Amino acid sequence: MELSFGLLQTCRPKTSWISFIFLYSMLCIWTNVECWSYFYSNNNNMTWPQARAWCREHYTDMVAIQNQEEIGHLNSWLPRKRTYYWIGIRKVENVWTWVGTGKALTPEATNWAKGEPNNGRRGRSKRVKEDCVEMYIKSDSQPGKWNDERCEKLKTALCYTAACKNDSCRYGDCVETINSHECACFEGFYGEKCEQVVQCNMEEVTVPYKGSVNCTHKYGNFSYDSSCQYSCDEGYQLSVARPLKCNASQQWSEQPPSCELVQCQGLSSPAGGSMKCSDPLGNSSYQSTCVFTCDEGHVLAGSPSNTLQCEASGMWNASQPLCLAVQCPSLQQLDNGFVNCGADADVMFSYGNTCSFSCGPGYHLVGPSKAACTSAAVWSDRKPRCEAITCQLPEVGAHLVTECSRPLTKLRPNSTCSFSCEAGFELQGAPSTQCSEGGLWSKAIPTCTAIGCLAPEVPTSGQISCSPALSSPVFTVTPHPLGTVCIFTCDEGHILASSPSNTLQCEASGMWNASQPLCLAVQCPSLQQLDNGFVNCGADADVMFSYGNICSFSCGPGYHLVGPSKVACTSAAVWSDRKPRCEAITCQLPEVGAHLVTECSRPLTKLRPNSTCSFSCEAGFELQGAPSTQCSEGGLWSKAIPTCTAIGCLAPEVPTSGQISCSPALSSPASTVTPHPLGTVCIFTCDEGHELQGALGMECANPGQWTSAPPNCTAVRCPLLEAPENGDINCSNSEPVFNSQCSFTCSQDYSLEGHELLTCDRHGNWTSGQKPTCQAPPSPVTAIASGVATGGALLSGLSLAVWILKRLKQRANKFELNSNSDIEAPPQVYKNSIDSLI
Description:
Elements: E1 3-6, H1 17-31, E2 37-41, H2 48-58, E3 61-62, H3 68-77, E4 85-92, E5 95-98, E6 103-104, E7 132-135, E8 146-149, E9 156-161, E10 172-177, E11 180-185, E12 189-190, E13 196-197, E14 211-216, E15 227-232, E16 236-238, E17 244-245, E18 259-261, E19 273-278, E20 289-294, E21 298-301, E22 307-309, E23 322-325, E24 337-340, E25 354-359, E26 363-366, E27 370-372, E28 385-388, E29 400-404, E30 416-421, E31 425-428, E32 432-434, E33 447-450, E34 452-454, E35 462-467, E36 479-481, E37 485-490, E38 494-497, E39 503-505, E40 518-521, E41 533-536, E42 550-555, E43 559-562, E44 566-568, E45 581-584, E46 596-600, E47 612-617, E48 621-624, E49 628-630, E50 643-646, E51 649-650, E52 658-663, E53 675-676, E54 681-686, E55 690-693, E56 697-701, E57 705-706, E58 712-715, E59 727-731, E60 741-746, E61 751-753, E62 757-759, E63 773-775, H4 780-812, E64 815-817, E65 828-830
Parallel strand pairs: 4-9
Antiparallel strand pairs: 1-2, 2-9, 3-9, 4-5, 4-7, 5-6, 7-8, 10-11, 12-13, 14-15, 15-17, 16-18, 19-20, 20-22, 21-23, 24-25, 25-27, 26-28, 29-30, 30-32, 31-33, 34-36, 35-37, 37-39, 38-40, 41-42, 42-44, 43-45, 46-47, 47-49, 48-50, 51-53, 52-54, 54-56, 55-58, 56-57, 59-60, 60-62, 61-63, 64-65
């Protein structure tokens, strides 16, 4: 095939191509310039694919047009061809593309002829696919412009050889120019072939205190685009988080940052409590720990823990707790009396507040005059009551026999009581006393003292058991009756001494038959000093090897203790543990908590310096602390052993007189501290006769907290009952709560109408519909006179007999069982057959 090519506008097609190639080659050698050359085929019968294959076989590729100057050069140099020239543009996936580079044709680089590209039409509607491009060389109307054409058409191939080589520009774009090329260096590079890279000062990359730096170099150490990333030790944070980068101006993008200690927000002591903080690195900084305690009568609230630690995130691991005063139950006013708890309603039932009680005129206080709200959230004493003034029942001591002129429940003024002692005791004090108008006894109540031996002293670390036993404690001066036998025993770790027997008997002389025994501590074998160590049993030589004494062990420099650090002398006269030994220092096996999994680099009997152990938690638990630790030269671990905390909520307390049911249920009892998983729902119920105070249920929600506080179960209360007129009431409890019972009695000559015993049921109702009353009998004379006036003596006598029988029946055989419960039996009245006489 005949070839033609062009180098410059001055090149002529008539010149021998061999001579021109030689001239061109010599020119490139002389000037050391890589040239861009154009070529075209003499054969104009090529399709676009054939033309490209020919260009790539003999030259670099089809022509890629760079600029208008190049277009002008080609239009002036190339010969006119009737079918024009194929160039290196083709539609690829519906995008006009430079085939040599694979880049899309940009709008600013287009050189289309007017009305092109248009995908020419064949016929009226059928569009012809024109995916290849020709160049109008020496066209009369639009020279140098482009037109889209069918790729199957036959035209002249237009080729080029590139001046740019693969190594023409190392870090830059090779820009082709007519007869030459030049390098457009990328940012950060310079030089004729862009082979030089910008350098930054490596000395400006300094390592901060408590930090480190890691640099990566893409084009050479500390050169353009090198990046230095800083990091800080745990508990420290970077002043600037961005990495340092070497930019094209030979400057680092940032100043080296510093590592600053992480700070948490300052805490303060809560009202009603105190706070103690440990700051190993700085006030309220990383690893600072604050422990909160509440004063007596206050409880922690508002936080799941009483200990807060400043974490590496700069946040405390929990919210700050509060100290709230405990609350006692509210006090109601006394019947016939008053309760005064102060004017401040917010604190009247809080811890430390005192309420005073008083009675109205004609009544006196039975019980304490004051009660204080204690730290246990209960009142320091029971609530008193106000009673009509009478003399109180004498409070008599043991063995005292009391006889009074009236029943003990009606000791009114002028009533008298006399006193005597049981056999074996003698009276100490006045034999009688009288009730005054002010409700006080005229003389003090006497006591009874035993006739016999003085009570022996209880030995130190021992006990006494006497028969017959005294009603008062044996350490008083109350004498024991003649014949009393006392047996002495010693506490654990002590033996009897100083007496021939452990038993004493009170003889007729009023003296015990032997000396009183003592209880002495048992003795353990003496302990010798350790090899390379020491034994310390205290400074008191008399007790250093006695029961209960503790001996501690320690080792000299370079040794550590293997075995117990302390032993105690037991009640069996042996030491509580074996004697330890001193061995050369190695790291001790880490003492790990529950659910913690430990893996060490060496066997656990060989944990020498530089050994490491890593930690993880069992499923359902998360690690609290460092994941690994290393054995130091001193035989200590570099970091504290972590713990595993459960992911979930702590089990709620079961309310008193109530139950709890949780789903899903725990395998261990709900009263333990086992955690419940998130989503657990717990429902509370109360025992019979109790009511739920608070939420019916609660759910374990994120982050491990219940949605509400556990409720309480309080006993159901019935209405307060009073004694009937001319009668008395006696109740089992001071408050009318569930299962309380109250019995009723009437004064002499009065009869009880209704139930004698009432019980508070589970619905807050008394088991009888109405309270009983005490009824006085009618006068017999009045009944007889009435009978004579209405029907004669015979009828009156019969009426009187019937009335007496009816009264007897009402007192002995009438039982009413009333209830307002919705499930118990309805009220009924059972009567005997004597009613038929009325």
